[in-house]
From TrEMBL:
SUPFAM superfamilies in the cross-refs: Periplasmic binding protein-like II, Winged helix' DNA-binding domain
Family statement: Belongs to the LysR transcriptional regulatory family.
Lineage, uppermost ranks: Bacteria, Bacillati, Actinomycetota, Actinomycetes, Mycobacteriales
Organism: Nocardia donostiensis
Keywords, sorted A to Z: Activator, DNA-binding, Transcription, Transcription regulation
PROSITE patterns, alphabetized: HTH_LYSR
Superkingdom of origin organism: Bacteria
GO molecular function annotations of the record: DNA binding; DNA-binding transcription factor activity
Chain ranges of the HTH lysR-type domain: 1-58
PANTHER family: HCA OPERON TRANSCRIPTIONAL ACTIVATOR HCAR, TRANSCRIPTIONAL DUAL REGULATOR HCAR-RELATED
GO cellular component: protein-DNA complex
Name of the protein in its database record: LysR family transcriptional regulator
InterPro entries: LysR_HTH_N (IPR000847), LysR_subst-bd (IPR005119), WH-like_DNA-bd_sf (IPR036388), WH_DNA-bd_sf (IPR036390)
Length: 284
């Protein structure tokens, strides 16, 4: 039994989907299925009831899940306990924050030449857990989080991009209004997977009719492909998202905005390098 197998096991339990768990862990679906099968073989039990439509944890999974989370938490605590005493910062984020983060890291390292700053790629839940456990010093997230022991500091605000298929009637325009968008179906992931996006959309359309929702984007599909399959639809993308093969247009009202925040431990000591990095992220 390996710790990475426990990581994959927890992801499948929480996502109830091998494809979503694989995406969250940044590996292929076949790889995560193989590792879960190995874990089941090592433990001598079946952990999931699999059908073509669902993944259901067994009683053995229910008993294993809290222990697996405890093991992974201990791993993070061990790494935090033996970290080098030299100036070092671990920043947890995802690739959509890479450009701005790396610019801020470069500025912070210029101010503190002896410091080491790591850019660690983690899914949302793992970013929060890494800060809470002390494995990472801060995490970048969109929106906010309320958890005892954690502090959230807003860094900047992003305008969401409006995206359509090249054949869409609004493609080629320099800008559009919410009223105009309300005439076309909006493609989004299910609200259970993207609560923040749905809340922002609802707030933006509070004074307008709509939006008209098209079919939810499946977890194993991309927004780009869904736009090609639904040329009359539109969607929203985060800043710095890939836009190959689709058209983007600016929203006149600038109502579709999402705050980007840093998550830190409430009791964390603000070292000079951490203070400099936060300031650089504010200004990057």
């Amino acid at each position: 039994m390996e710790l990475r197998q426990l990581t994959y096991f927890v992801a499948v339990c929480e996502e109830l989907s091998f494809s979503r768990a694989a995406s969250r862990c940044f590996i292929s679906q076949s790889a995560i299925s193989h590792q879960i099968a190995r874990l089941e073989h090592d433990l001598g039990v079946q952990l999931f009831e699999r059908t073509t439509r669902s993944v259901v944890p067994t009683d053995a999974s229910t008993r294993l899940l809290p222990l697996a989370k405890q093991m992974l938490s201990l791993e993070s605590a061990i790494r935090a306990a033996v970290r080098t005493s030299s100036p070092r910062i671990r920043l947890a984020a995802n690739m959509s924050f890479a450009t701005r983060s790396l610019s801020a890291i470069a500025g912070a390292r210029e101010a503190h030449p002896g410091a080491e700053i790591e850019f660690v790629i983690k899914p949302f839940r793992q970013r929060i857990a890494a800060v809470a456990d002390g494995d990472c010093d801060l995490a970048l997230i969109r929106g906010s989080v309320q958890q005892p022991g954690l502090t959230v500091e807003q860094l900047w605000v992003e305008d969401l991009m409006i995206a359509t298929a090249p054949a869409h009637p609004l493609a080629g325009r320099t800008d559009v209004t919410l009223k105009e968008l309300g005439d076309y179906p909006l493609l989004l992931p299910p609200e259970s997977e993207q609560v923040l996006l749905h809340n922002v959309i609802r707030a933006a359309f509070a004074d307008f009719p709509g939006p008209i929702f098209g079919p939810p984007i499946p977890p194993d599909h991309t927004a780009t492909m869904e736009l090609i399959n639904h040329p009359d639809a539109w969607t929203v993308l985060y800043a710095n998202s890939p836009t190959d093969g689709i058209a983007t247009v600016e929203l006149i009202e600038h109502r579709l905005r999402i705050p980007v925040s840093a998550v830190l431990r409430t009791d964390a000591r603000r070292s000079p390098i951490l203070t400099t990095l936060l300031a650089a992220l504010h200004c990057a």
